[in-house]
């Protein structure tokens, strides 16, 4: 097995390679289950994220995919510390305008003052554009709010930057005095993107930014995000459950199942040479725009329901639904996330390359 330091840990002296902007190290997030009205007693925990490690290189897009409830959004919010991680490290290594690299900072343990400074570098675009914008604020107020909080510029300078950002995301500067209800879903998401760009961040989480939009609008927003990435040198953690969308925008893809990473590699390898049985099943469900190929494909139907994260199965998390599970092995031993090929990480006792298309 390749040294796991290459994938999910800092080196012994706390340094990161210069091309790595974010490294998540053994991240765990649990939500307590309590009983009682006045004297609440913890009787269990929902294991939303269970000891995952990954890294994101500067300027790339890492796609995080999986079924609803597998822990994708919880991972992203824990990385940004919108949720307090139960344990683990989140090392962020920013860069300066002159090209020099800052010392890594552990977001998970940073104090309030350091975290406030990191907020300018780490931003998020939320999933639902209808819920993430304050209906009582104008567009100018929404986009300028981060600058106001961080005391950037004068009111006049902030207004000018708002107008510039609206142009950048494809909206008219004349829309500054309008309210969110006057815009379509795609336009609202563009406003959310403008707000996220207000502080000149280096790293952005895109939490299913197109799932609430019409298909015709999804491509526009995705193309916008790619253009902004090229223009501003942004790094993305892109969360989605639509594998077609992920293939369009991501450089590398991590597949999650029940709080753990099942497989992670570059985009083309994942779609052409998947090794994990769960990835095989996901890809077999993606429709192909060719009637001949589609008619000859064999779908992999997973039996049973997803286990509860409050009581995950022993051993491999996927063993209760896996067609290749071996009793006495898969339901006993937890498979490590191993690098089976250069850059191709798989957590499975019996990995196999399967042509799913």
Question: How would you describe the overall organization of this protein?
Answer:
This protein has 357 residues and is of the alpha/beta class. It is 29% helix and 23% strand. It has helices at 5-8, 72-79, 112-118, 139-149, 155-168, 185-197, 215-232, 243-249, 267-272, 277-284, 291-296; strands at residues 20-35, 41-57, 61-65, 87-92, 105-106, 122-125, 203-207, 235-240, 252-257, 260-266, 338-341, 344-346. The strands form two sheets. Strands 6-7-8-3-9-10-12-11 form an eight-stranded mixed sheet, sandwiched between helices. Strands 2-1-4-5 form a four-stranded antiparallel sheet. Strand 7 (203-207), helix 7 (215-232) and strand 8 (235-240) form a beta-alpha-beta unit. Mean pLDDT is 89; it is low at 1-6.
Q: Which secondary structure elements does this structure contain, and how are they paired or packed?
A:
Elements: H1 5-8, E1 20-35, E2 41-57, E3 61-65, H2 72-79, E4 87-92, E5 105-106, H3 112-118, E6 122-125, H4 139-149, H5 155-168, H6 185-197, E7 203-207, H7 215-232, E8 235-240, H8 243-249, E9 252-257, E10 260-266, H9 267-272, H10 277-284, H11 291-296, E11 338-341, E12 344-346
Parallel strand pairs: 3-8, 3-9, 6-7, 7-8
Antiparallel strand pairs: 1-2, 1-4, 4-5, 9-10, 10-12, 11-12
